[in-house]
Write a structure and sequence with these properties.
Layout (H helix, E strand, L loop, with lengths): L2 E7 L9 E9 L2 E11 L4 E2 L4 E2 L6 H25 L5 H9 L7 H14 L3 H18 L11 H13 L5 H20 L29 H9 L5 H15 L5 H4 L7 E2 L2 E5 L6 E5 L5 H7 L22 H25 L10 H10 L5 H8 L4 H8 L5 H11 L2
Antiparallel strand pairs: 1-2, 2-3, 4-5, 6-7, 7-8
Helix pairs in contact: 1-2, 3-4, 4-6, 8-11, 8-12, 13-14
Length: 404
Amino acid sequence: MASSVKVTLRKKPNKQGQYPLAVRITKDRRTSYLYTGQFIELKYWDASGRVVRKSHPNAARLNNLLLAKLSEANKKLLDLQTTNTDISSKQIKKEISAPLNKTTFKELSESYLLEIKANGKLSRYASDKVRVNHLQCFAENNYLTFKEIDEAFLRRFMSYLKVTKKVSQRSIVNNLVVIRTLYNRAIKQGIVDRKHYPFGADKIRIKFPETEKVGLTIEEIQNIEELNNLSKQECHVRNVWLFSFYLAGMRVSDVLQIRWNDIYDDRLHYRMNKNDKLLSLKLPNKLLPILQQYVVDKVNDTDFIFPEMKKANMESMQDIFAKTKTATKKFNKYLKSIAQKAKMDKKLTMHIARHSFGNIAGDKIPIQMLQKLYRHSSVTTTINYQANFMHKDADDALEKVINF
């Protein structure tokens, strides 16, 4: 559809009976107005010529102002239509009155963080907020533009993270991923031209370093199961950890939100927090003694099995997130002392329950079944995850070569 930019006098008078001079922007039959801040009486407006009549004492100055605004708007409209044919009349108005290329990294990152927070992605919000703050602390400039975030800038930022902030290579990559996400948004919104994009094969390459996933062995888990010198709190934490492990490494955020009425027909039925999937798993016999320890505190069928979420405001995603985070921190603290009592050298955390299930599963279970147990959306994710624990083929190949 055609677009047009014209000067006009809006027929909405102010309290003094004067009418505003404006630039009218029309796109796809939708109109927006960019006001000049100048008002005149209706008798001074020449509607056919779209100019202020000479009888007005400041006609020449006002007409020059309108001509300048019209020229600026037409030039901006042409530029925008060249790069973005889908832009609306409101966006054109916004760009003319406050050019997008003046939008700072700080402004766009704040709107991005508010968006993911509003969508309930609180874990991502918390981690990405830290990463955004890293860049702003490094730049020491609240008016940093995307054009300034070039290859040289990012290489200095990477060095700053490594030397000054002393973060891991994986954390450096995670910081770059957030910047790339924001840069792509800036390009899509017309804030910066794609030619300035600092990422790519011949620029800044984002490559995740390989990380070693360490899980417990059967013997180590049996040792934890059999410990009898634990405090009451340590016993509770062991129960939560084993509950997670026995159910294929269920995430702690899901474990803490399991209710008594999620268990029926000897199965656990629950909806995952991460991807909203409905799951049903047979209750392993090993879980029954654990459940018996908590049934005495059961208030009703909708009560939580574990106590950590009983006082949470389930209508508040922020409260759920905060209580889950606090509980996980507490669990990991006690798991450290449990590992010491079990005389383990490996680091014991809630997330290690998932790694331990993968380590013991190895290549014994078909990958499609593991995908179902892990609740992965893609089998590729399962293959990549399980590759950390599948060593038999490589071990056998090595033995065949060296055993001569």
